[in-house]
Amino acid sequence: MKKTNAARILDKHKIDYEILEYRVDENDLSALHVSLDTNTDIKTIFKTLVTVDEKNQPIVACIAGDEELDLKALAKVAEVKKCSMLPLKDVLKITGYMRGGCSPFGMKKQYRTFIDVDALLHVKIQVSAGVRGQQLLLIPKEFEKALHVEFKRIIHATHIS
């Protein structure tokens, strides 16, 4: 297995991690597919989403695979007027990663990164290793060694009936 840029960055910062592999389905690049293929709790699989603020500056958000990013909450914690999703056609150009293989580690530039605070509820979480078919499993607080991250509430509130 070839080491990805994301894994090399974790090595450089002496962060313990494990690489997990899953079957890639070009028609389903969702976190749910990864969860089902690896028999892993969807709440521990964090997807990496890239947004831009009103000045077109990228802001990265990592949220649990079954959650939805709250763009207003992200804008508030990032102290910007608004956030919108980066168009898919721009993901590779801005991050260096393909859709379905976007890791918060090893992007072309280090962008502001927010991880939903629920990540801290888990012993370990998974994020993309930077290629489709590989995930990195690591302790959430370890992100701080390699990235300037903030743990904030950035998902839509779920309603309890």
Concise account of the structure shown:
The chain is 22% helix and 25% strand.
* First-residue to last-residue Cα separation: 46 Å
Low-confidence spans? none
Query: Residue share in helices?
Result: 10-25%
* Outline type: globular
Which radius of gyration do the C-alpha atoms yield?
A: 15 Å
Percent of residues in β-strands = 15-25%
Give the neighbour order of strands across the main sheet.
Answer: 4-2-3-5-8
Number of strands: 8
How many independent structural domains?
A: 1
In the CATH hierarchy, the architecture is Alpha-Beta Complex
Count of discrete alpha- or pi-helical segments spanning 4 or more residues: 5
Structural class comes to alpha/beta
CATH superfamily: YbaK/aminoacyl-tRNA synthetase-associated domain
Order of helices and strands: HEHEEHEHEEEHE
Largest sheet: 5 strands, mixed
State the name of the first-level CATH class: Alpha Beta
- Average residue pLDDT: 94
CATH topology: the name is YbaK protein
